[in-house]
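INPUT
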Amino acid sequence: MSKPREEKYKAILDAATEAFAEYGYFSCQVSKIAKLAGVADGTIYLYFKNKQDILVSLFAERMGQFTQEIRHEIVQCRTTQQRLASIVRTHLRYMEENRSLAIVTQIELRQSDPQIREAISGPLREYFQLIEQVLAEGMEKEEIVIRDLKVGRQLFFGTLDAVISDWVISKKPRSLVEVEDVLIDLIRGAFRAKN
Amino acid sequence: MSKPREEKYKAILDAATEAFAEYGYFSCQVSKIAKLAGVADGTIYLYFKNKQDILVSLFAERMGQFTQEIRHEIVQCRTTQQRLASIVRTHLRYMEENRSLAIVTQIELRQSDPQIREAISGPLREYFQLIEQVLAEGMEKEEIVIRDLKVGRQLFFGTLDAVISDWVISKKPRSLVEVEDVLIDLIRGAFRAKN
Amino acid sequence: MSKPREEKYKAILDAATEAFAEYGYFSCQVSKIAKLAGVADGTIYLYFKNKQDILVSLFAERMGQFTQEIRHEIVQCRTTQQRLASIVRTHLRYMEENRSLAIVTQIELRQSDPQIREAISGPLREYFQLIEQVLAEGMEKEEIVIRDLKVGRQLFFGTLDAVISDWVISKKPRSLVEVEDVLIDLIRGAFRAKN
Amino acid sequence: MSKPREEKYKAILDAATEAFAEYGYFSCQVSKIAKLAGVADGTIYLYFKNKQDILVSLFAERMGQFTQEIRHEIVQCRTTQQRLASIVRTHLRYMEENRSLAIVTQIELRQSDPQIREAISGPLREYFQLIEQVLAEGMEKEEIVIRDLKVGRQLFFGTLDAVISDWVISKKPRSLVEVEDVLIDLIRGAFRAKN
DNA sequence: GATGAATGAGCATTCATTCAT
DNA sequence: CATGAATGAATGCTCATTCAT
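OUTPUT
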């Protein structure tokens, strides 16, 4: 009679994304998530170990999906340039379509609580590795030039992150899509990408 | 008589920096700051309106000092390239010398609590404007090429931020100074800086 | 299901009456009420907005009941004399049976906190109006003589209040019932009541 | 050089009267009294044992003065009627001239805190005895008729108290002096006073 | 005597989590 | 499985009182 298990799980995660985005992790009560998800407070605990587990699961799930999508886009590209451009585009578009997720990512990425940090680092690291792989391959093929792989990734991700951060904070943000080309061009320059 | 007052104020701010860095703003109790500062809980409230005011004051004070220092370095530079290199160097070194501040900055920069956000945005915006000024001047003098000032700043700051973020999270970080040159080189490329 | 809810609500109100009576509103902690009511501290806040709300609710509930009872007695009386005597008797007996309420009334009636005062004034004013109605009707029918309705009510209520005040303070009080007749006689004289 | 001891003592008591009247005993901080008295917080404790001692001293001092004044008026009266009228008049006028004291009296008379209560009861009891003496003498001389001395006093004091209570609460109170005659007349009736 | 900065015990209130229904 | 009333530990902040100057 009731919603299947999977559906309710997603409903809670969606609600949590909204709620965390609006109030922040600490200022958002579990009861608020429950209400938003249309379930009882106690029900949350049938699906998640505790509040932190909601955040962690949310992050793992969404980031996994995100990385998946990026990975999918990349394989269709021929050159490193295309791959980087593709990541930029997918990243921006994904976040633009999932504003609450973007906010949560911005906020909770930096929790200093060691437990949360640890739990969150996994999915993020996976994305980092993906970027670094593309960069490494580009260097091998001499399509780009970077003196330090990690720093290259930091520039790549940090820039995207800053763009989204501003967009998230801004009350009347211009569309992220608008900056795609500028961004790609800038990054291309940083990596001395050959045409 | 105002000497000990000033001293105690700084002691509390220092303690708060440490404590916020270690536990995060929300997970850090006022009593923990008090103990670390070597004062009674109540004493805190002789110097700060409330817990949030500690964070805000801390941020305003430290970021103000930071921007000041950067500004001071910049004026001694001739070219835009030098100016950008100078900011990178000062930024990294300042954070390396103030690891706790770096952590707090990383964490609290992204608080979604609107009040905190608002209070914090001032000092940060000032730094952003400083960067954008340098970039604007560079474009005017045709020392660099950027299609969008804001995106340029986002790349510049975002990259530095990501570098520090990794450094902060890392258990055994390599010195930030080590990456200075790579970083400067990368940014130079992004902005097509002429030698 | 709403049965236990109602029960717990009353239990808290009863406990609060006892506790406020014994310690006074300000010197009585919420936790003391909770313990006395046999519930957890937090449970209090499922039923009341805050500590002040307990006091206000308590007052509204009990005084409403009290006025109700008085009103019920009055309608059965023929003459103003009987009505006044009835109020005196009911007032004294009600307070004698609800000593804690009597104490709370004595104490909190005079809180200078404007908020509390305002909240409390409603039910009390209702009682005052009841008295004044009886007096007004008595004057119309020429059963009593009063030059000023308000002062008449003040004498009536003030006297009862003083009697109860003494009784409340006294360690070994004589029964309030004992003074009924004397009191009625005295008031009758003040109002020049005709037999 | 500094104010003589006595003057500062009075200043604190005056300040306390104002402050207690405005905020109530519990909601009034010692520091507020100090500021109002123009002394440092610590100075208070050179003159009073603690906060409660301020209230108690205030009450003892002011009520003593009050009773004194009443006593002084009474001796000049010939008949019981005159004496009662004199008390009514003096009581009302004294309170009208000392509104803050009137408020404090209204409020703090009923503190349930046993300690405060005990300390306050002394001066008040003295006034009660004064009234009862007048009544007793009146009965002896057959100038009035009362079946119970205590109840007589309760009517007398309670009525005055209620009048003042209303006056204190009222935002636009009519002068207390206006009700004098009505009041005296009413009380005269209660006691079957002979002309 | 006078000061007022410092103290720290004390308390109302919140909210993640549990568990009887 | 689902509920939501109940729990009680946890914490920011206040303020009477002290005491070094």
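end of record. Chain A has nine helices and no strands.
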